[in-house]
Write a structure and sequence with these properties.
Number of strands: 7
Oligomer: single chain
Helix content: 25-40%
CATH superfamily: Gcn5-related N-acetyltransferase (GNAT)
Distance between the termini: 30 Å
CATH topology: Aminopeptidase
Radius of gyration: 14 Å
Number of domains: 1
CATH architecture: 3-Layer(aba) Sandwich
Structural class: alpha+beta
Strand order of the largest sheet: 1-2-3-4-5-7-6
Number of helices: 4
Largest sheet: 7 strands, mixed
Shape: globular
């Protein structure tokens, strides 16, 4: 049984391990990506702010993925970012990613965001396919100040 819920402090080590293992699996550079984000080991703290939330997906009590919404740094307050959406292999192909995106976007709408931004890498084709399926469109350049200098595929979705 899979369940989606808000992150708790005790989830920090598990979700950090999930994110790093997926990034390594995909061959993502460790610099200029989520791998190097300083808050990765304390995600619950990073999403304590107003209008921010991180959700984890659990299977039989084990965290197997997650995703979050937060204001997009360096942008207007009506723009959010879908962040750190990663799933272990056993969570893939079950519709969990789509459910997680809908959960995040509902949170964004409830918190009065009008546009959601996401960035990824060119070879993350499955992720891009999912983003397009739920209504994200490609844009020509980055927005905000994410610090993810190697992510060079950008998408947005009006909310």
């Amino acid at each position: 049984m899979l369940s989606i819920r808000e992150i708790r402090e005790e989830d920090n080590p598990a979700i950090a391990t999930v994110i790093r293992s997926v990034l390594i699996e995909l061959g993502v550079p460790k610099v200029g990506t989520a791998y190097a984000d300083p808050e990765l080991d304390t995600l619950n703290k990073a999403y304590e702010g107003e209008r921010a939330c991180y959700f984890v997906v659990e299977q039989e009590g084990r965290v197997i993925g997650g995703a979050g919404i937060s204001p997009l740094a360096g942008e207007q307050p009506n723009i959010c970012e879908l962040q750190k959406m990663y799933f272990l292999p056993q969570a893939r192909g079950l519709g969990v990613g789509e459910k997680m995106i809908h959960q995040c976007l509902e949170f964004a709408r409830t918190n009065h965001y009008e546009l959601c931004y996401i960035e990824t890498l060119p070879y993350m084709k499955a992720a891009q396919k999912l983003y397009r399926k739920v209504g994200f469109s490609y844009i020509d350049g980055p927005m905000g100040n994410t610090g993810h200098t190697t992510c060079n595929v950008w998408l947005t979705k009006p909310l």
